[in-house]
Amino acid sequence: MREAGRGKREGGRGREAGATRKKSADLAEPTPFARRMEEHGMVVPPALADSMRRASGGESADAAQNNAGAGKATAEDTLRAAEQLLDRILAAECESRDSALDLLTVDALVTRAMEIAARDPDSLAAFTKSAMKRISTR
């Protein structure tokens, strides 16, 4: 009986040690979403990548992702691009299927803005709250 009890305690310690290792691994810089998608065989469809590039001022989706880490594209810049495109869509009343790509682009840009904002956990909650307010008032 003692053996069984001892094994459980040792197993418990192993789980705790594993949890500690996982926590320290979680603190590492996250893998950019585009790279994570590629690792799983998923890529941004070319039409969406082109649309994101146009909406964000000519920068490719991959370049925007890479530059975000270098401080070139900020969460605010990316969100602003999404808002501007959303305003154009809403002004056109979004009554046809032609708006589908633009709507997907807005979604992708907002997602990218959140991903960039997540690099600074201290400001993530405030940015997310602000972004949702800004978008919902359109």
If you had to describe this structure to a student in words, what would you say it looks like?
The chain is mainly α and 138 residues long. It folds into 2 domains: 1-30; 31-136. It has 7 helices and no strands. The protein has helices at residues 2-26, 33-39, 46-55, 61-69, 75-91, 100-117, 121-136. Helix 3 crosses helix 6 and helix 5 runs antiparallel to helix 6. It is globular, with a radius of gyration of 21 Å. The termini are far apart.
Which short descriptors sum up this protein?
single chain, mainly alpha, 2 domains, 7 helices
Write a brief structural summary.
This protein is mainly α. It has helices spanning 2-26, 33-39, 46-55, 61-69, 75-91, 100-117, 121-136.
Task: Compile the SSE list and pairings.
Elements: H1 2-26, H2 33-39, H3 46-55, H4 61-69, H5 75-91, H6 100-117, H7 121-136
Helix pairs in contact: 3-6, 5-6
Helix content: over 70%
Distance between the termini: 67 Å
Q: Give the C-alpha Rg.
A: 21 Å
Low-confidence segments, given as residue ranges, are 5-22, 67-71
Largest sheet: none
Strand and helix order: HHHHHHH
The residue-averaged pLDDT reads 77
